[in-house]
Specification:
The chain has 172 residues and is α/β, with parallel strands linked by helices. It is built from 6 helices and 6 strands, in the order E-H-E-E-H-E-H-H-E-H-E-H. The protein is 31% helix and 28% strand.
């Protein structure tokens, strides 16, 4: 089985759950304790693709969501084949900022693909969740594979987001 390495960036505002999504995917754990990411943190996980005999070694960059490092964020994004762009369903301003994060990522990596993760679905009522999903669907952009509702706490669609991204990056 052949293995290929691919860089993935998780981007979004502060406290949207980027680190929690990564920890849930890589380590299988969730913590209520909030840990601010300063700059970047890098994690790795090998994904076996069901549709081929390939493995993808995901090199996952957790990029700080604050403004302190904003001028150097494009440097962190360079060379990424994919991204998970994260918004917090309980904070409208983070959803409003998703288009800017998407634009910045694709300006830096014009041939990449991304998934938009609408995170923290565990704290949103079902009827509101449906409306938020409709209002924040970015799949009109051909480089956005999917807009997906996630919860790192409940492990809702976390593996799916990373594995679908990996499967779409294999030919990138």
């Amino acid at each position: 089985m052949s293995t290929v390495s691919k860089k993935v960036c998780l981007i979004g505002d502060f406290s949207v759950g980027k680190t929690s999504l990564i920890r849930r995917f890589v380590e299988g754990v969730f913590s209520e304790q909030y840990l601010t990411t300063i700059g970047i943190k890098i994690a790795r996980k090998v994904v076996n693709l069901e549709t081929s005999s390939q493995q993808i070694d995901l090199i996952i960059w957790d990029i700080e969501g604050g403004t302190k490092f904003k001028p150097i964020v494009p440097n962190y994004l360079k060379g990424a084949t994919g991204a998970i762009i994260v918004g917090d369903l309980s904070r409208q301003e983070t959803l409003d900022h998703l288009p800017a994060h998407i634009d910045l990522f694709f300006q830096t990596n014009p041939n990449a693909v991304a998934i938009v993760a609408l995170n923290k679905s565990d704290i949103i009522e079902e009827h509101k969740l449906t409306k938020l999903r409709e209002l924040n669907n970015f799949t009109a952009n051909s480089q956005i594979i999917k807009t997906i509702v996630t919860s790192a706490k409940n492990n809702t669609n976390v593996d799916q987001a990373f594995t679908e991204l990996a499967a779409n990056m294999v030919n990138s």
